Amino acid sequence: MLRRTIALGFVTLLAMGPAARLAAPQAGPVLFEGALVVAGDLSAPIVNSAFLVEDGTIRRVGRRGEVQAPAGAGRVDLAGKVVMPALINAHGHPGFQRGLTFSRDNYTRDTYLDDLYRAAYFGVRVVLSQGIDAGDLAFEIRRDRQRAGASAARLLTAGRGIGAPNAGPGAAAFQGIAYEVTTPETGRAAVRELAARNVDVVKIWVDDRGGRAVRLAPPVYRAIIDESHRRGLKVNAHVFYHDDAVDLVEAGIDGLAHLVRDREMDGPLVASIVRRGVYVMPNLSGSERGTHAGLPPWFEEPGLGALLRDTVSAPVVARMRAAFTSREPAAAAAARERYAVLQRSLRRLSAAGARIILGSDTGLEDHVFGHAEQRELEAMVDAGMTPAQVVAAATSRTAEYLGLRDMGAIVPGRRADFLVLGANPLDDIRHTRRIEAVYFDGRRLDRSAIRARVHPGE
Ligand SMILES: [Zn+2]
Asked: What is the distance between the alpha carbons of residues 453 and 286, in angstroms, rounded to a whole number?
């Protein structure tokens, strides 16, 4: 097993190409010693570890004293700390919120990068933007960030997603961006355009938006899935209704961007998700916000609150607070009932061994990059997953879904993208917020510079 992992590492290195090698790694090899390593792949944690990083890549991992370092290697003492892989989020929407405003006018390089820097500040290494990237901006940022290495989260994009007319993305700011298709042939044509732009996945919406629109029809999404698979692209579906999820799984969908929201996922659906290896993003944290009429415990948690205040302005924090304190108890109670259904579906999926990954719909209004990913982890544990399962879901499993074979775990051959924590997330998942340092490509991020960039004061 170890031998195979190392071999895979060398193959990955050879396959990475010139763009990845231009990332500026720490000069010379560095040995990180003494941390408890949570590798992110459900293997047993390594107590009093040592791992060697060179050229931005993890070369060796083992117990302290057992890992050889070349003469002259740097050393970093991490005694008493915990190391886990940086997070990977398969469902975000960067670039739309600026201060209190949420609109298409905000969709600029600056706003977009701010969101990717926010994500990095909270320990998120990769964000997949799911389907509302018009024009060239996201593609340019994806190319530039890849080249520069740099300290913002790496971007992957679905470009423009595909839906039926008026049945695409929900927010007003997103209108007019998605492809609107009604026939198999126009669906295939959209996929061909997306493939020509080298999107990372294809996003579709299958929803009637509360009855206001006609759903993307099964023959149309089957054509989209077929055309995407012919071109080596995965398809990722926004779903709402259980019946749609059943048919999408049957049709070969690769990922579900949400749990179904009209009822609990039943045994046959869960079984077919497991059998077909469909990846599921629970996307709980947005819905969880609605369950509170009063301040949620996480909002009052000092550590998480401080991270939030570091990255968004005081008026945004105040508006988030007001959304809780002004909510009618009856509305919160109804939301809690709906939320409990989502939690039960996730518990069933997890118990059945489904491939669960991190997807938090980050970037919707006041659903702050990095902050929402951190809350999503806690929500997954609250629904019944173990902290170890959630760490693996949010790192190695999401990397697997996105085809990031050199990311997502603390094992030889992977990129040295990791968090240094002050406490063990396997004891309490909220410890993923106790961030003392973030490393991308073996380089320690300057988090104070990120804070200054995304939050230059009131
Ligand atoms: Zn979304």
From this structure: 26
Distances (CA, A) of 133 to 99, 156, 171, 179, 412: 20, 11, 14, 11, 34
Distance from residue 53's CA to the centre of ligand 1 (Å): 35
Distance 12 CA to ligand 1 centre (A): 31
Is there a shared CATH topology between the 2-85+409-454 domain and the 96-284+338-401 domain? no
Yes or no: is domain 96-284+338-401 CATH 3.30.70.1170? Answer: no
Q: Which two tokens stand for residue 431?
A: 């410890």
Q: Decide: helix, strand or coil at residue 12.
A: helix
C-alpha 289/C-alpha 375 separation (Å) is: 10
Show me where the domains of the chain are located.
2-85+409-454, 96-284+338-401
Fold of 2-85+409-454: Urease, subunit C; domain 1 (2.30.40)
CA of 7 from ligand 1 middle (Å) equals 37
Ion ligand 1 — residues with CB under 5 Å?
Answer: 361
Predicted TM-score (pTM) of the model is: 0.93
* Overall size of the chain counted in residues: 458
CA distance 45 to 24: 29
Mean pLDDT, contiguous 10-residue spans, the chain (458 residues): 39 37 61 98 98 96 95 96 98 97 96 96 98 96 75 95 91 92 98 98 96 95 98 98 98 98 98 98 98 96 96 97 97 98 98 98 97 98 98 98 97 98 98 98 94 80
For residue 330, the CA-to-ligand 1 centroid distance in Å is: 27
Task: Provide the token pair at 194.
Answer: 């997306």
> Torsions phi, psi of 59, nearest 5?
-95, -45
